[in-house]
Design a protein that fits this description.
Layout (H helix, E strand, L loop, with lengths): L10 H15 L6 E4 L11 E4 L2 E4 L6 E4 L5 H7 L5 E3 L5 H9 L6 E4 L4 H8 L5 H16 L4 E4 L2 H10 L5 E3 L6 H4 L18 E6 L8 H14 L3 E6 L5 H10 L6 E5 L6 H7 L2 E3 L9 H8 L4 E4 L14 E4 L3 H13 L1 H14 L5 H24 L2
Parallel strand pairs: 1-2, 5-6, 6-7, 7-8, 9-10, 9-12, 10-11, 12-13, 13-14
Antiparallel strand pairs: 3-4
Helix pairs in contact: 1-14, 4-5, 8-12
Length: 385
């Protein structure tokens, strides 16, 4: 159960698609319950959408539909499930609790978001304490409705400690399809992007939102390009900040060396990463970022900020370089890898090694074990009622 699904694209929706495919391939029946009324072409998953109230979300470029209830048809099917995996705690989580708790259907919440960090980014500073207290109260109430909370990384667990929330926490990476990433891909032809074989390509891939700190990355690249004119930056993705970033690039005189690709289908992601030499991110709100895992799977060194979610995947001087959130320091780390091809290759090799434990072929089996254990546990409780 998820508040919003495709056509909205995010790390959460990609994770659900990848995981549902792995579970289906293992012989399990998976149904995704969400809100909306748009038909998504070529959707292979079984998705049941209920209509809701259209709401424009400020940090997204789409209008979503929300409701406190699913349709009667969806509700009846939800009540027939063996297990419920919730991916948003407040709406889908509350609905799952009302529909399933008395039926002894286990409810597992997979925690994807550092709500505490988002709250600090999207609210005025003078409201931070109030917002965090409200968040802690509501998230604590939600977690008490779940049989388990899956935290994909140490950074995810950190939020609950910070907010003073206890639950039945289980650690499990979101997982990515290494078989998909490791197919023999021919990278996007550089000429189609206005690039040459002599360019060193620095790539960001993901949603273009305020919390991703892309203006900082562009500032860092601006400093880098002054001394390393062979470098180019490619920004893959879309979001609410596209126009602002384009203006920044134009103002800095980088229009000929920064490429915006716009939205890229998930199936095309490996081809773009295959074209890159370095992956860069300045996000500080991550939990278990798929884009970083995907870049690692494609053998790229990672340059990033020593922050939530990133430090869980990137070891400084092993498979990447980390720094404080500072354009000069990020630029310095980029320059180090631009100059040292041998280090780029070695760190990329280390990335491939470190990502092995995040393969969906491994993580989905652990997820099935979690589901089966909780089903057995709840069945025993139900019998004793």
């Amino acid at each position: 159960m998820v508040d919003m699904y495709k056509p909205y694209i995010s790390g959460v929706t990609n994770h659900i698609e990848i995981t549902s495919r792995a579970l289906s391939n293992a012989g399990h029946e998976v149904t995704i319950f969400t809100f909306g009324d748009k038909i998504v072409p070529d959707e292979s998953e079984r998705v049941i959408r209920s209509k809701g109230l259209p709401i424009k979300v400020p940090f997204a470029d789409l209008t979503f539909q929300f409701s406190r209830n699913h349709s009667r048809n969806a509700e009846n099917q939800i009540k027939q499930m063996d297990v419920i995996n919730v991916h948003h705690p407040f709406i889908s989580g509350e609905i799952a609790y009302r529909y399933c708790w008395d039926l002894s259907i286990p409810i597992i919440f997979t925690s994807h978001t550092r709500y505490d960090l988002y709250a600090e980014i999207y609210t005025p500073r003078f409201l931070h304490n109030l917002v965090l207290k409200t968040l802690a109260r509501n998230l604590k109430k939600a977690c008490h409705q779940f049989d388990a909370v899956i935290t994909p990384s140490e950074s995810s667990r950190e939020m609950y400690r910070r907010l003073g929330i206890e639950s039945n926490f289980i650690s499990l990476s979101n997982g990515i399809s290494l078989s998909h990433m490791h197919k023999t891909y021919q990278g996007i032809e550089r000429g189609k992007l206005g690039l040459t074989n002599d360019n060193v390509i620095i790539m960001y891939l993901g949603r273009i939102g305020p919390e991703k700190n892309l203006p900082l990355l562009i500032d860092a690249f601006h400093k880098l390009h002054k001394s390393k004119p062979q470098t180019r930056m490619v920004i893959v993705g879309r979001g609410t900040e596209n126009k602002k970033l384009a203006q920044q690039v134009k103002y800095l005189g980088l229009s000929n060396v920064v490429v915006f690709t716009g939205y890229v289908p998930y199936s095309e992601v490996p081809k773009y990463l295959q074209t890159a030499d370095i992956f860069v991110t300045a996000s500080v709100t991550e939990v278990n970022p798929l884009s970083v895992l995907e870049a690692m799977a494609m053998g790229l060194p990672i340059v990033g900020v020593d922050s939530s979610g990133i430090r869980d995947l990137v070891e400084h001087n092993c498979n990447g370089l980390l720094s404080e959130m500072n354009a000069i320091l990020i630029s310095k780390n980029l320059a180090e890898l631009v100059d040292d091809e041998e280090s780029r290759i070695q760190m990329g090799t280390n990335s491939k090694k470190r990502v092995q434990g995040h393969d969906i072929e491994t993580t989905h089996k652990r997820l099935i074990e979690i589901f089966e254990n909780l089903i057995q546990k709840k069945a025993g409780i139900g019998e004793n009622k």
